[in-house]
Amino acid sequence: MMAIIPARPLPLVSLQQAGKCYGKGAGKVQALQEVTAGIWPGEFIALCGPSGSGKSTLLNLVGGIDYPTSGEVWLMGRNLRLLSDRETARLRAQSVGFVFQFFNLLPVLSVYDNIYYPLMLNGYSRKLADEQVMAMIERVGLINHYRRPPGELSGGQQQRVAIARALVKRPALVVADEPTGNLDMRTGEEIIELLLEMNAQSDTTLVISTHSPQLRASARRILEIEDGKLKDD
Ligand SMILES: Nc1ncnc2c1ncn2[C@@H]1O[C@H](COP(=O)(O)OP(=O)(O)OP(=O)(O)O)[C@@H](O)[C@H]1O
């Protein structure tokens, strides 16, 4: 009798000898060298390494914000090299949420509208999106603040808005670049708790670059990077 081997799910992201070089001639920087790795549904990955080792560069490739200068990146089963900028932007809008160290919120919009924004880009009317936006606001603990502009909130609260914005469209993948880097230790710990909770409660895969020992300790998988090379997985 033939054994039935359960199919392994496809990776959300597959990097195949992906490299990234900035600049030309004497100013050339090889920020990433032949990185091969897969990121699978449901994972919580900490990307660790010293300053300048290539963490942000790698995250930008993983999230489809940037392209490799050598090798291939496949996002949601699509080879980014074969997609137009517009197609990549659409794929990103549907499938990837981003969280940044300095929050990158839109200061002229309210907390509510910052969180609604990615749904708007995906064609949702305010009416259709309202329940989803309000549920997210509640989950990140900002129910008393959603009418305010983000500039009036503390750093930790602003990062909660950014996490809600990244997760509201229920993306397959969330990429976070040092999400606790601009927060004090206690607030950073709360944000890590929130990210862990979000990962546990949904199928969202999280890839987080960090210098935080707590985040490193909480991750189920650690990618170590040094001088643009993946050292350990
Ligand atoms: N846009 C750019 N143009 C030129 N060089 C760049 C650019 N972005 C990054 N680099 C260089 O690429 C290398 C890797 O940078 P990267 O920002 O990916 O490191 P990192 O590990 O995220 O650092 P940090 O922990 O300090 O944020 C560094 O040498 C950096 O100077």
Automatic annotation (TrEMBL):
Keyword Ribonucleoprotein belongs to the record: no
Domain of life per record: Bacteria
GO cellular component, one term: plasma membrane
Keyword Isomerase (UniProt): no
Keywords annotated in UniProt: ATP-binding, Nucleotide-binding, Transport
InterPro entries: AAA+_ATPase, ABC_transporter-like_ATP-bd, ABC_transporter-like_CS, ABC_transpr_LolD-like, MacB-like_ATP-bd, P-loop_NTPase
Single Gene Ontology MF annotation: ATP hydrolysis activity
Pfam families on file: ABC_tran
Domain ABC transporter: 13-233
Family: Belongs to the ABC transporter superfamily. Macrolide exporter (TC 3.A.1.122) family. Belongs to the ABC transporter superfamily. Drug exporter-2 (TC 3.A.1.117) family.
Name of the protein in its database record: ABC transporter
Organism: Winslowiella iniecta
